Amino acid sequence: MTATVVKPSALLGKIRIEQMDQINLFKFSDELQERMEKLLDKKKADSLTFEESTELDAIGELDRIFTHINAMLVAQK
To answer: What is the 8-class DSSP label of residue 14?
Structure first.
């Protein structure tokens, strides 16, 4: 079995910038948000494949990175 590694940087094309209260914030595209929710549901049901688990890990890492960056941007205002 070959391990499939999904790097968070592979998902950057699914990120958008949204202006809120005169601050530009990083947001997931609707497609990426829906994918993350679907994978989380499968995880709760204990039905994730190894590849899906790897993908969810990458999405989660990207989510943590952008949450941190967005918090820093908001704090600067």
So the answer is: G
The contacts of residue 35 (CB under 8 Å, 6+ apart) are: 55, 59
CB contact at 8 A, 58 and 8 = yes
- Which tokens sit at 45? 């049901």
Question: Which long-range contacts does 37-42 make (Cβ < 8 Å, 24+ apart)?
Answer: none
d(CA 64, CA 54): 15
End-to-end, the C-alpha distance of the chain in Å comes to 49
**For residue 44, which amino acid is it?**
K
Query: Could you read off the pLDDT of 26-69 as tens digits, one per residue?
Result: 999 999 999 999 999 999 999 999 999 999 999 999 999 999 99
Give me the sign of the Cα torsion angle 18, 69, 13, 46.
negative
